[in-house]
Amino acid sequence: MSRVRKAGGGRSQLRIIGGEWRGRKLTFPDIEGLRPTTDRVRETLFNWIAPQIHGARCLDLFAGSGALGIEALSRGAAHCSFVDSSRKATNQIQAHLQTLDATDRSIVHPQSAMDFLAGRVGPWDIVFLDPPFGQGLVAPCCDLLESHQSLASESLVYVETGNGEPTAEPKDNWELYRQKRAGSVSYQLFIVHAR
């Protein structure tokens, strides 16, 4: 079950599940479509990527609550960039990073993921791609990551979609490493090999 709880005042709450800030609770605004990755899925994902997380440069696209990127920083990532088009969401993520004294290891971009990726950024070691369901955003984001060479060699790309939605279509150098379902969510982890 998700550990997202109502905190009152139109806000919700989740907790960091591992690392330096384990057990810390974060609140975030109720924003339509914002659906933080559940504890169960985060636990599985971070078990999968544990050998690569320390010192990694991470990108949290469609960051929402910031749960994935903040979890990565808690577990030893060197840096995380958070991208979300909601100013409410990015303001709250920035506040959390200040509270956790992590502003020197992070940057928050209040813009759309597509605009951010069009800027030829990176390279990233780990990318968290968890867009709003039902909007067909996975494939174009993966295309931009690949075509703009935004991924480091042997990088990891995590993709979360609703069941029944098209998932990422692996490119010739993308290896599907793990995949699972939990409730109404499907999630995959790809390793991106050098061309």
Automatic annotation (TrEMBL):
InterPro entries linked to this entry: DNA_methylase_N6_adenine_CS, RNA_MeTrfase_RsmD, SAM-dependent_MTases_sf
Cleavable signal peptide: none
Reaction equations catalysed: guanosine(966) in 16S rRNA + S-adenosyl-L-methionine = N(2)-methylguanosine(966) in 16S rRNA + S-adenosyl-L-homocysteine + H(+)
TM ranges: none
Source species, domain of life: Bacteria
EC number: 2.1.1.171
Class of enzymatic activity (EC top level): transferase
Entries under PROSITE patterns matching the protein: N6_MTASE
An annotated Gene Ontology molecular function: 16S rRNA (guanine(966)-N(2))-methyltransferase activity
Annotated keywords: Methyltransferase, rRNA processing, S-adenosyl-L-methionine, Transferase
Family, similarity comment: Belongs to the methyltransferase superfamily. RsmD family.
Entry-linked PANTHER family: METHYLTRANSFERASE
Purpose: Specifically methylates the guanine in position 966 of 16S rRNA in the assembled 30S particle.
Protein name stated in the entry: Ribosomal RNA small subunit methyltransferase D
Organism, scientific name: Pseudohalioglobus lutimaris
Gene this protein is translated from: rsmD
